[in-house]
Amino acid sequence: MKSLDTTQVKKHVATIHTSGELSLLERKVSNILLLNAYDKLLTQRTHTIPIKHLWGMLGWDASNNAEDLQSVLVRLASVAIEFNLMEDGKHSWHVMSLLSYGNIEKGLCTYRYDEYLAQRLYDPEIYATINIGIQRRFEGNYAFTLYENCLRYKLVGSTGWWTIEKFKKIMGANAAMYDEFKYLKRDVIMKPIDDINRVSDIQVMPEFQRSGRKVSAVRFVVTDNPQQALLKPDIQDDHTAIRESELFKRLLEHGIGERLAILWVLQDETRVRGVIEYVEDKAKKKQVKGSTAGYIRTLYENNAVVGKKTPFEEKKLQEQQAKKDDAERKAQEKKAVELKADFIRERADKLINTLSADERHLWINTYIEKMGDEKAKAYNTKTGDFRTANERIEFRIWLRKYIAPDASKEEYNIWLKLKGHALQSVKIDTVPTQENKKPLLTVV
Predict the structure, then answer these.
(1) For 434, which of 332, 396, 404, 405 could close a Cys bridge (C-beta 3.0–4.6 Å)?
(2) Is the pLDDT of residue 228 over 70?
(3) Could you tell me which of 161, 140, 176, 259 has the C-alpha nearest to residue 216?
(4) Domain 12-127 classified CATH 1.10.10.10?
(5) Residue ranges per domain, the chain?
């Protein structure tokens, strides 16, 4: 997977077009959360970022104000995101909240995206690239909203025509005064354009379409900002020096992720160096059980004092690491079981859906024989189906156990890939077959 520049976030155009209701702070936070999660959008649902790190990316002084962040998360979890897409040549509409879950605890912000939304946000074909450094320069919500919605058109040069009503919806300009175009133009078009052209990497110019004497549509010509070279010192990667440091590279060698490594070096460079040296010394003596990355994390995150320790202290740390490794192993095994069950259920359902009426009838007779005469009362011989949805579901669950086809490891791996699951994160020996499975009944 190609790593994303740590100052740029690929934001799906559909969400840009429907996020006008968000405040400036909410929009900026949503971009930072997306940037933080981007590399693992397809492989994990839950993401975490230190609150102090989040505030720092906003350009604020170090802060641990949980109340402000709580308000933002409430909004992000309640604002509806609409997708109007073309899928398989047909119009497809979807709606969901921007975040499906949020939590603030022990200085950390934990959050989740709906699986469908995560797949759309990661789409490398349709996105707008938002530079977090440029984002910090915006002080007006309308300016930043317009910037987001114009940025993706830089290569084609124009947004295309938007009706005035669509433009107002995109911008979140719902005030009654904006029914009068002169106020809409002043506050939501011209002032934001002045800000965009002054602080960002693009330059925007409006064009208007009239129907009689009334302005009916607007579009924006988008070009590179000739002042871009002057902005680069302000929008470059804030962590370049850290990335080039020997300490950062040593953390990566041990398997610590880039963002976590940057955060640790920012927090306490001396402590990070001490922990690395301590663990490397232990590893040379073959006294580290499990990975050095896990041991480093345990020491650093538990504020352990590194140096000479008593045998009791060393034993305690090793037990902590063993517990953590065991928990990670169990979580991985649980995930593997869930995925295998989903795979078998999906294959069985596909086969069930291809059964002819006669084949289905034979299976229903077998079901009634095995489950008892009560099931016969629930079966309608005229319609050839069960009378209630619950009975139909129970029959399908029973049938899956008998009809699920065998599958090879290769077929399972292909399915995992199509579903966006990383193969290396799931240990696969064999795909389990269903117990008591019988061959598919056929009509002679």
Answers:
(1) 404
(2) no
(3) 161
(4) yes
(5) 12-127, 131-232, 239-308, 313-419
